[in-house]
Amino acid sequence: MTSFLEYLLYVAAFTAFVLAFEGVSRLVRANVGEQRAIALRLQKARSAAVQSKGQKARKRFLDSADAYFPRLKIALTRANAPFSPTQFLAGGAALFALLLVLFNLLAMPRPMAAVAAGILAIAIPYLAIKVMMAKRRKKFLEQLPHAIDLMARSLQAGHPTTTAMNVVGERMPAPLGPEFRVVTEEMTYGLERGEALANLIERFPLPELRMFSASLDVTRETGGNLAEVFLKLAEAIRAKDTLRRKVQAISAEGKMTFWVVTGLPFAVAAFIMFTRPAFFTEVSTDTLFWPMISYAPITLTIGAIIIWRMVNLKI
Predict the structure, then answer these.
(1) Per-residue b or e along 254-268, where b marks 16 or more CB atoms closer than 10 Å to that residue's CB
(2) Which residues, 6 or more positions from 151, have their beta carbon under 8 angstroms from its beta carbon?
(3) Region 92-111: what's the mean pLDDT?
(4) What pLDDT sits at residue 57?
(5) What is the pLDDT of residue 53?
(6) Is the preceding peptide bond at 277 cis, omega within 30 degrees of 0?
(7) CATH 1.20.81 fits 137-237, yes or no
(8) Burial (0-12, 13-18, 19+ Cβ within 10 Å), 68
C-alpha cells in the first residue's frame, strides 16, 4: 500500500511539473507579445473559423466549465492572464499535488500536509493574479492622463470623438493602447459607445476611467467644450496621482517593515535548513513538532495582514 501511494505521489509530482511548465511558458508568451495576443483575440472574434466536431465539443466543455467561475474569469481578464479559469484551477490542483508530495517528503503528518498544501495552492495563485492585476492597473492609470491629453488635442484639431479614441489606440503603448483599440473595434462592429466603455471599465474598474466615461456622456447630452473638459480631467488625474505618490513615499517605511517582518522568519528557517538540517529533522518525528511549528506561520500571517492594512492606504 505504501509503495502504491509513493508511486501515486510521483505521478502527481510529474503531472504538476508539466502543468507548471506549461503555465509559465504561456505567461511568458503573453507578457512578451501582449499587443499580438490582443490582435489575435480580435481576429478570432471577427472571423468565423471552421471547427471540427471534436473542437466544438471541447470548446463547449470549456465554456460550460468557465461559466461556473464568473468572478475568476473576470479576475483573469483584468490580469490579462493567458489561461482560462479551467486551466487556472487545473494548475492549482497540480500545485496542490506538488506541495503534498513535498510535505510528505518532509515527514509532515498527512492531515496537516493536506491542509497546508490546500491553503498554499489557493493563496499562491490568488496572490499571483492580484499582483498581475495591480501591475497592469497601475500602468494603465499612469498612461490615462496622457491618453486624455492626446484625445483633447485631437478634438481641438477638429476630429470626432471616435477618431480621437482611434488615435489613442494606435499611438499609446500597452496596456492602454490595445484596450482602446478593443473599444473602437467593438464600436465598429455594432456596440454603442457607452457599452464599449462599460466593457473597458469592467476590465479596468478605475474611478478615473468612470470619470472619463461620464464626461463623454454628459457633454453628449448637455453640450459643451469636450476638449476643455478632457484637459481639466487630465489635470485632476495628475494631481491625484501626485497625492498618491506622496502617500506611498510616506508609507514606504511601513511597507519595508512589512516585508522584513514577513520574510525574515522564512529566510532564517531556510538558512538553518541549508546549513544544519538536523536542527529540524532530528525532532520532526515528534508528535508535538508540527503543531508547535505551525503556530508561528499562523500568527505571522495574522500580523502581516494587520501591518499591510495599516500601511496600504487607498487614495
Answers:
(1) eeeebeeebeeeeee
(2) 161, 164, 165, 167, 168, 230
(3) 86
(4) 47
(5) 45
(6) no
(7) yes
(8) exposed
Task: Give the pLDDT confidence of 166-195 residue by residue, as tens digits.
Answer: 999 999 998 999 999 999 999 998 899 999
Task: Report the C-alpha gap between 187 and 136 in whole angstroms.
Answer: 24
Which contiguous run of DSSP H or E holds residue 2? helix 2-32
| Residue carrying the nine cell digits 501515486 | 8
In Å, what is the CA distance from 115 to each residue of 54, 58, 221?
38, 33, 57
Please give the C-alpha separations between residue 307 and each of 134, 135, 244, in angstroms, as whole numbers.
Answer: 19, 21, 19
Higher pLDDT, 165 or 74: 165
The three grid cell numbers given for residue 217, joined into one nine-digit string: 456622456
- Decide if pLDDT at 283 tops 90: no
Q: Which amino acid is at 277?
A: P
pLDDT digits 0-9 by tens, 18-43:
556 566 565 555 555 555 555 555 55
Cα–Cα distances (Å) from 198 to 137, 152, 214, in that order, read 16, 21, 11
pLDDT greater at residue 107 or residue 204: 204
In this structure, the dihedral spanned by the alpha carbons of residues 138, 148, 217 and 190, taken in order and rounded to 10 degrees, is -80
Of 205, 200, 203, 208, the C-alpha closest to 244 is 208
Between 2-32 and 34-46, two packed helices, what is the crossing angle to 10 degrees? 90
State the Cα–Cα distance between residues 66 and 84, nearest whole angstrom.
Answer: 7
